[in-house]
Design brief:
homodimer, 358 residues, 60s Ribosomal Protein L30, Chain: A, Phosphoribosyl-aminoimidazole Synthetase, Chain A, domain 2, 3 domains, seven-stranded mixed beta sheet, 34% helix, globular
């Protein structure tokens, strides 16, 4: 523990000194992985250039005021490879991903726009299948696709297709969500098994010669959000969907934004045995692997049991768990109580061990 | 003229019989060119799959109602090659293109979201330059960039970068725009010289070994829209920005949507001499070449002179012209009175003579 304390103190010192600056000379896969390099790019380049209040929050969705209504606005590019995988496909992911960014910001999805970059020579049936998958996912999420655009690039570019989806949502008036409202003692709730999506993609690429039965968790998390707000709206501090960079990255962002510590109990975080096995072979901690249908909520201590029960009452939320709590120290960091009784620091994702996952 | 009349009658018959169905087996560059193939893809596949009122209008922007406010919502992917060209760059184009789709739908741009697909190995200074160009263009258009996303794909997969921008605008209450309000006798106003953008891109590629001084017209057309609404709001039937597929494609869409004929006077349409020269060498009619800062407005006859004067009063609109009028026949088609005293049919763009122009 002495080493850990020293490391914690040294890191706090370094983080206090550092404001993110984008100084890289070349774009690497890591800039798209959702971890430290992405954070530096976004905070150090984009937020600086486009300086405005809505963007500088760097939340899953920007907040706007339209005719007095709180409107959420979010965009995501999808470049997942392969286009189809067990449990879903790029089109389904593109709808659910944007629905979920709205949902975790407390906004009911209202409309989606889609922009396709297609590769010349793409089989039209592949495109039709994705358009139909998107239509089904949008219907399941109760949101219409109202606008679109299509561009085509030459053979060899775009891997079949890239899809960008952008969503507008209207904020649920009960949702008063902000990382800065997080307080020591709050509980961390997780809606279910982690790392299914990223692992399913890696296995679908066939590079591992593993034949595990892992299926992407892609789905709308809006039903979880409704259940949480119905059960405990004033006590829900913030919600996130742990996609790129996984649970580890989301908790680090929250710890940093709220300037609190987060303590996670590793053995309470549910990981399916085939996912655990595949991650071991890959040499990757499932905490860093993308999810596409899970939700993390920070909830005040007094409401945590009730909120957890609400999550578990939603179909697909049966495996929800209370995985940890917020502490005042070490501020800005995530500690994990390991299965073996030790404690380790869980940092943001560095590099990109799982490229093109969403 | 007998041949022309026969051709007109035969076409009317064919168009009446045809409803767009997407039957192509493979995606080609033409599907991204904004002409006939794009129209069939959008109307035959997307609009069918996502069936809803907002999308089925297939306008430049979808219309939504948020808290009683008329909201416009539009998205565009940009894949222009090269990334920088005389007069602009992909980032500037991405902001202005989306601003203009909102503007011509009569909506004041309120917020923009940007999604980047970056190529691994991209020089970070190239990205910085585009982010700064976007910030400048957004500031010039008076609209904040409030949300974003970044993905990275492997070398060779994205030509440096692709950018998707999505915009939200709030409808100007004076704008009552619809192609179905177009009436015989209406005038067609054009804000200035055509084909500058597409020609500048082709020359910038260096494939022509031509060294003409042609500069892209990329800019926000919102000032033109404000001037038209200030001068003649109740008489403005519809506005469009003639991007991919050019003036010819926009007029064909309007003729089809309104079920009217459009008669254009070729020698009134302003084309700069170097643009005319380059188009002749390319074997392309400037009417089909993309513009990124021009506006076409259909205005009632009685308001046309006043509206034209308003356009000309806007900086950059000095060369605006009244280029033609609406007739009741031949419904759904565009006729051009040529410089040489003849008349020809100007169809929608077929194929993609100028790929990757925006």
């Amino acid at each position: 523990m002495a080493d850990l304390e020293e490391e914690v103190l040294a890191r706090i010192e370094r983080q206090r000194k550092l404001r993110p600056r984008f100084r890289d000379s070349v774009i690497t896969m890591a800039h798209g992985a959702g971890g430290k390099a992405t954070h530096t790019l976004v905070a150090g380049l984009f937020a600086h250039a486009y300086a405005n209040d809505a963007l500088s929050e760097l939340a899953d969705a920007a907040r706007l005021d339209i005719a007095g209504a709180p409107v959420a606005f979010t965009t995501d590019a999808f470049v997942v490879k392969p286009l189809r995988f067990p449990g879903g496909s790029i089109g389904e992911l593109a709808i659910n991903g944007t629905v979920n960014d709205l949902a975790v910001s407390g906004a009911k999805p209202l409309a989606i726009a889609t922009a396709f970059v297609l590769e010349e020579g793409l089989d039209a049936n592949v495109l039709k299948a994705e358009v139909e998958a998107m239509a089904r996912a949008a219907e399941a999420a109760g949101v219409p696709v109202v606008a679109g655009d299509t561009k085509v690039v030459e053979r060899g570019k775009a891997d079949g297709m890239y899809i960008t989806t952008t969503g507008i949502g209207v904020g649920d008036e009960r949702a008063r969500l902000s990382a800065t409202s997080i307080r020591p003692g709050d509980h961390i709730l997780l809606s279910g098994y982690i790392a299914d999506h990223g692992t399913a993609i890696m296995l679908a690429r066939g590079e591992l010669e593993l034949d595990a039965d892992v299926v992407s968790d892609t789905r709308s998390v809006w039903p979880f959000v409704v259940a949480l707000l119905d059960a405990a709206a004033p006590h829900v501090r913030v919600m996130r969907d742990p996609t790129r960079g996984g649970v580890a990255t989301v908790l680090n962002e929250l710890a940093g934004d709220a300037d609190v510590g987060v303590v996670l109990d590793e053995d309470r975080v549910p990981v399916r045995p085939p996912v655990k096995g595949a991650c071991e072979i890959l040499g990757i901690d499932p905490m860093y692997v993308a999810n596409e249908g899970q939700l993390i909520a920070v909830v005040a201590e007094e409401a945590a049991p009730h909120a957890l029960a609400a999550l578990r009452s939603v179909p697909g939320g049966e495996d929800a768990v209370d995985v940890g709590r917020v502490a005042d120290q070490p501020a800005g960091m995530v500690l994990v109580n390991t299965t073996f009784g030790g404690t380790r620091i869980m940092d943001m994702l560095i590099g990109d061990p799982l490229p093109r996952i969403c």
